[in-house]
Amino acid sequence: ETGVTQSPTHLIKTRGQQVTLRCSSQSGHNTVSWYQQALGQGPQFIFQYYREEENGRGNFPPRFSGLQFPNYSSELNVNALELDDSALYLCASSLPGTGVYSGANVLTFGAGSRLTVL
Amino acid sequence: GNSVTQMEGPVTLSEEAFLTINCTYTATGYPSLFWYVQYPGEGLQLLLKATKADDKGSNKGFEATYRKETTSFHLEKGSVQVSDSAVYFCALPGGSQGNLIFGKGTKLSVKP
Q: Which is more confidently placed, A63 or B97?
């Protein structure tokens, strides 16, 4: 059973540029969510994708966007990068539904993509 | 909305010492509660969970009990090892979307 894989592992961008991060979900998982983890902080929910559509979003501006593909892999795109976007971006996959609330589902995380914006 | 407050670190212990990391929560209803661990340079891994009041989650010698009366889910381990050095996050669901809300994390360093 493969886990969640993310690429690239590290990247450096300059302010104003655009970045695309990629994620392959765990085998059998069709829901993907993205989290931003700033240095010394807990992960913050960006958005979630199910059946190729965004079905949940945290408090992030529209310049954070995403895609999910038919094979359940996903991309996170960030436009007009700002210095505060420097963080570890984590992808997590799971089965769909409200199972997280009941504990029936568990999020499986990738190792993350560390973005530095200069 | 749901929220979680976690004891801030860092916490430094000697090997074989007793560990407690405090976590309290505010939630609608009785959601499941989680502890995740992040080893250096890695993503988050589920350490343990509890799905209802008075449940005790356990894994790798770590335990946490879902206390409805005190709205707490403290993480404990009787004898820590150097390999337990990591950042520990308490978490609970944010809502029906299936996202999690995480605490700020507690960094644990265990010295030989």
A: A63
